[in-house]
Description:
The protein is 47% helix and 19% strand. The chain has 165 residues and is of the alpha/beta class.
Amino acid sequence: MIAIYPGSFDPITNGHLDLIQRGSRMFDKLIVSILRNESKQALFTVEERIEMLREVLHVYPNVEVDSFDGLLVDHAAAQEATVLLRGIRAISDYEYELQMALMNRRLRPDIETIFMMASETYSFISSRLVKEVFSLGGNISGLVPPSVETRLSTRLSKTKSQRGA
Ligand code: PNS
């Protein structure tokens, strides 16, 4: 069984990583797919995010990383995936996730969305909060993989020096 774990991953957090680890044990292949045509302004380019994901995920032999444009269900079908994997952190995630799952089911009834509950250790983490806390000088160790923390430092010091210029 092939599953797609879609998202923005700007950047990957330990919450995503926990879900990927657990998902990799459930499916024969798990494809972590980054949305390309994102309306939100991203901190990292899709290529940088692919690199960051691959750095962290190369230890899982049945996990692959790719990116997609257009409808998620069409990408899933093209990859012969029958499952969309999503994480739920809190009740506040539920409404948005339910809407997406029902729309995706309407578009392609043969593709099932499966939800996994985020680990309680990471249920408060989001990429948006990690970026905000880090940019304001807060400690994010333990919230993202160390390689991502390094990339965030580099990106932030570049942004600061550009602003100063
Ligand atoms: O991590 P995110 O940002 O919550 O991920 C959202 C994502 C990528 C799963 C969603 O925006 C998506 O699937 N976009 C692709 C376009 C699409 O298929 N839209 C209809 C979804 S019902």
